[in-house]
C-alpha cells in the first residue's frame, strides 16, 4: 500500500494539473471570502468562518473529482492495471493506497485556508470571543466530507477508463449524496413523515451537524460508513474488471 501511496502522490504533483486544481480551489475561496460582496467575510460584521464552511463543500464537488478521476481510469486506459494486479498486493492495498493518497491531497489543499482563521482573528475586536471549538469541529467536518467525496471519486474512477467520464460520474454522485436527499425531503407529500429520514440519509445533514462544532458519534459513523461502502464497491469493481480481462 505504501508503494501505491507514494506513486500516486508523486504522479499528482509531477504534472501541472494537480497544482492548477489546488490553486483554483484556493483562488475561488479567496474571491468568495474576501472580494465578492455578498459572501465576503469583511462585510458580514461577525468574526467567524461560517462562509468558508458553507462554500467549501460546493467547491469540493469539483475539486475532489478532479483529484480522483485518473486514479484507476488511467490505469485501465494505459493497461497498467493488469501489471498492477500481478504485483504482491491485495485488492484492499491498491484501493486504500489510492484513497489515502487522494485524501492527503485534499487535506493539503485545505491547509492554506487556516490563514483565514488568523486573518479573522486579527480583524476581530475581541479575539477571545472566537468560537474556536466550532471552527475546529467544522474543519473536522470538512475532512470527513472530503473522505466521503474521495471514496466516491475513487469508485467513479474504477468503473471507467475515461477520466472525464469518471469526473462527471463523481460530481453527479457527490451532488446526489450531498444535496439530493435534502432536496427530496422538501417535497410536500413527504412532509411530516419520511422527510426527516431522507435528510438523515444525505451527507449535508451530517456535515451541518458536525460543522456546528458538535462531534456526534452518529455523524462520524455515518461518514465512515459511506466511505467504507464506496471503497468496498471500488474493490468489487476492480475484481470484476480484472476477472473480465483475465
Short key terms for the protein model shown above:
single chain, 246 residues, mainly alpha, 78% helix, cell membrane, membrane
General description of the model:
Keywords: Cell membrane, Membrane, Transmembrane, Transmembrane helix. It holds the Pfam family ABC2_membrane_2. The chain is an all-alpha fold. It has one domain. It has 13 helices and no strands. Helix 7 crosses helix 13 and helix 9 packs parallel to helix 13. The two termini are 23 Å apart. The model has no long low-confidence stretch (mean pLDDT 84).
Describe the secondary-structure layout.
Elements lengths: L1 H13 L1 H19 L6 H4 L5 H19 L4 H6 L1 H6 L5 H20 L3 H10 L8 H27 L4 H22 L10 H7 L1 H9 L5 H29 L1
Structural class: mainly alpha
Proportion in helices: over 70%
**Describe the biggest sheet?**
none
Tell me the β content: under 5%
Q: Helix and strand string, N-terminal first?
A: HHHHHHHHHHHHH
Rg for CA atoms: 19 Å
Shape descriptor = globular
Strands, count: 0
N-to-C span? 23 Å
Q: How many domains would you count in the coordinates?
A: 1
Output the number of helix runs.
Answer: 13
In short:
The chain has 246 residues and is mostly helical. The protein has 13 helices and no strands.
